[in-house]
Amino acid sequence: MTKRPTWAATSARLVGGTVAAVALVAGTVTAAAVVWPTHDREPVSVLAVPAPSESVAACPGGLLAIGRDAGVAAAVTLVTAPRVVFDTGAGQPEATAEPLVAPAVADSTPDAFTAPPAGATRTDLVAATSATVAAEDLSGFAAASCLPPLLESWIVGGATATGYSGLLLLSNPGSVPADVQITAYGAAGPQSPPAGRLVVAPGTQRVVPLAALARDEKSPVLQVISTGAPVQATLQSSITRTLLAGGVDQVAPVIAPETEQTIPAVVVTAPPGVEGASDPATIVRLLAPSTSSAATVTVRSAGQTVSTSEVPLQAGVPLELDLGGLEVGTYSVHVQSDAAVVAAVWSTTGFGEGDDFAWHAAAPRVEGATLVAVAAGPSPTIAIANDGADAVAVSLTADAGAGAAEEISVPAGSTVRVAVDPERVYRLEASGPVRAAVGYTGDGALASYPLWPADAAASPLLVHP
User: What InterPro entries does the entry give (predicted)?
Assistant: First the structure.
């Protein structure tokens, strides 16, 4: 039989529970007030230096033409083979050339150079190419630096409007396929064209017409992203005006968007007022890929500010700014923005038969020592820009560091041009960060390519086991 609890028993239990609760609260308050001993333990970490790998530099190859075969309008042919100069640092292992296969272009075998590491340090390797062509459909001078392949790069240059032609060159010097995705930025913002998704086989170069990526665009910008293996991207751009070839160039990639971009050496060879001067002779192209912002564009010459312009940038839409009628001379163009941008400057020797143009890509910051390959061409110079607040001492040594040295002082906010010899490799060492480019000027010839920093050693990694 079930018995009900008496009132006394129930009360006793209630009192006991109340006492226990009070004791628990009191204990908790006391524990919170007491300073308990603590023990901090730093996470275990190891500073590891990755094993050095071989140095790689891929070249764009010679100058190409599209549409010469009336029966196959999309066929691409090699017009002029390049002249190549390459070297490694003094006392470092020598580089070897490994031709790439270009399946779509007969007789075209662009080079890729490799150099083994020197002990525990990567070998500093540079190479550059140049070519001249004088034909009815293609004319001018082009020079380009052979660059290491990247997982992401930006091409600022070219057009697909009437009279313009462009070929995107994608080189994979690696041993595994590269899955490439190209995003084309234009007047309608970023687009993912069907032709922009492709595979570049190992040891090959793919050639993609720019018109297949950005149709009827006056100022396109391309973002090239690769997975599986990095690729080296270069754009060949050319112009034809009323059936007359108006120049050709091989456009170097920009490594990444930055809030500050510098184009060290923009050469103006024709004074304002010459025939065709109603057309812009010097233009800067800008893109803020992801964030709308305002950019300040400053043009300088001999350390003095020539002009300053502020322009609004809509996210994902390229913008072109006419830099005005600049007098004959050499200028540096500086871009500052709250948002990361990519930039390049277009300039031309004129608008008639036999004239040429060049795309001057923004130069990355260089610190310490690096090699500079000067390809064959007319009147080559190295322009060194100092964006800092203090003067920078630069040592330029011929023969990849084994020859005579020239000491140069680059004042704050200035650019210094140094005449150099064609088909020669120099070692540039700066006491502070600089931006530099190799430039060429001549009769109907204009070209430029930026100097990239050397990757002479793998950066240490902080590993947490």
Answer: DUF5719
